[in-house]
Amino acid sequence: MKALSFNTVDEARRYLEELGGSRGLVLFASAAAVSELSRHAPSRAVLCSTKGEYTPQGYRSGVVTGFEYESGIADIVEILHPPVLSVGQLSASYHKVQANANAFMLLLCDGTGAMEETILSSLFFIAPEFKIVGGSAADDEHGETYIYIGSRRVRNLGIFFNMPGRTALVKENIYVTTGKTLLVTEADVFGRTVYSFNGRPAAEEYARVLGVPEAELAEHFLSSPLGKRYEDDLIIASPMVINPDGSVTFYSQVMSSTYVEVLSAADPLAVLEETLGGSPYKPSFVLNINCTLRDQLFIRDGLWAAFDGIMLGFCGNTTGFISYGEQYYKKHANQTMILLLVE
């Protein structure tokens, strides 16, 4: 796989027009750029709108990036609404690659549809250890996300890659547990809204546990998200907004009658060194998906330049995008970085 980067839409358009039938392409760019490029995209090109781009030159905003691959190794499947309508085609594509331990699925979702968990639950036929990596597309000023297969706009899609070499998935959290927990006592799971923690109004109790005034709670969302525990894994659920009734809406589902852990930020650069130091091998290609909330934190704290130095020193053939949520195996996460490593 080869990472690509284009400074302008015209550069990317010319590349699309010259793309041969033996090559497939996945491109990440702003909503406006994706909409423009879709008019020139061949059938083997996939386009996804983003909140920012990660390139072989590091973090950028307003460019076009992505990767190229031999088209014969991939099967592209549109995921309809509701996703159950696509189970047959998804299952058929999965069964072609399920015996290959190196295979994986790239899952790109509409970042405003709040359907990620529903899509993942529709993949019941996929083995738990099968690699699923992905991100949710970002919207424009009108709230529209853009995902295309060629010139055809779709809401969600999956690409099954039948890889010849080793692959690995790595998930990075830059947050650690504080030892404080909250019991979700009332929630609308599909609406991703919590009405009460510990039997008290959600915003009031969240603020009390953090030790901050309720009126200032939203200012602490970036630094103190919540964690959902799955056996030994911690999946971040990021708060989105405090509603007028004191409930809190999140970027992912939070279940009633479960405990969530209050988190605090660690040193992101030290965590990155640890993450990459634990890599099972030196990769020849990396797909890097970072949450938009990590992006906000990194911009606020001026971390991207140092992050780039570490990441590109690990692998220069790197691409990716800033997403509205991350898919890791069959879980939907927020405020997370997901890496796909290809040996």
From TrEMBL:
Residues 202-330 form the FIST C-domain domain. It comes from Paenibacillus borealis. Pfam families: FIST, FIST_C. Residues 21-201 form the FIST domain. SMART domains: FIST (SM00897), FIST_C (SM01204). InterPro entries: FIST_C (IPR019494), FIST_domain_N (IPR013702). Coiled coil: none annotated. This is FIST domain-containing protein. The lineage of its organism: Bacteria, Bacillati, Bacillota, Bacilli, Bacillales. It comes from the Bacteria.
